[in-house]
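User: Quick sanity check before I run a bigger batch. Here is a single chain. Can you write out its predicted 3D structure?
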Amino acid sequence: MRAAVLRSPGAPLVVEDLTLAAPGRGEVQVRIEAAGVCHSDLHYARGDLPARLPIALGHEGAGIIEEVGPGVDDLRLGDKVVLTWRPRCGRCEFCSSGRPALCVRGRVHAESNGLLRGGTRLTAGDEPVHHLMGVSCFAEKCVVSQESVVRIPADVPSGIAAIVGCAVVTGMGVVLNRMPGVAGRGVLVIGAGGVGLSAIIGARLVGASPIIAVDVAPDKLAKAQALGATHVIDSRAQDVAEAVLAITGSGVHWAVEAVGRQETTTQAMASLRPGGTTFLVGLGHPHDQVGVPLNNLVQAEKSLQGSLYGSSNIGVQLPQILDLYRAGRIPLDLLLGDTYRLDDVNAALDGLISGAVGRAVVVMH
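Assistant: Done. Predicted structure follows.
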């Protein structure tokens, strides 16, 4: 079984043959059909986010179940599934109160770089290879916990299914779950990558107006317009807050920061109307800090909040998003970028650095 392995931070991934153990209790084996290419993978590859090495990367994927371990409740051979990097136990305080993105078991993958029930199922000879976010889907196959898959209709294209598992549900989710009464109100999205573009799709779906996209790449801004942005701002040529005020008169009700940087967070906060809220969805370096003008925060009653995984109930919302796609309500096909083979996974990551447009997908077969 071939997989893309990170052996040293900053070094290219190595596509190598690994041994994949059979799924244990509560686990399934999935034949990967497609995997989306996310900036989080790049953060790990560069060493911005720590991980136990060696580790097989990839966390946004879809495929077919080809083996089921003992104790698996309702998954069957041949089921098409989306992999999810944030498992949900269904029993803790957060799962029981409708906030499974904050499940108490959600940190197990990040802290252990193993699966929920312990250990790794990957080896290179006698050497253990760790799992990224309990998934590791830059690979021909993977073993994952049953809590990390969502069954989907068989007719959903695998590339679409893959990107819905992270980028789409993160971007659409923050709009659908954290912006009450958004119809007719302004939304600003800073960063027109996969997550930011998905937020634009969500904002258009629920009738936000205006929908303002910010980026430094003209091609990305054109894609944002194709997906529903009513206005675009090139932040290299314009002051973002001034441009937003010129469009809206008083600022936007909500801003989505999908880059993960201090300066873009500052831009988002400065673009809010009084009482507005900025949601941070982009990850940065673990030591990055966010600073905002204290008096403006108090006097204008602005808010700065985080949103993990779109604040979604993934087992419910992911199928709903796919139903909208299958009904022709959301243009997820336009969100797709370049397609790569597994052997070209490093080129796919380089595309993130160079500003490739749309969400790139690695196909395995």
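The chain has two domains: 2-152+331-363, 170-308.

User: Great, the batch can go ahead then.
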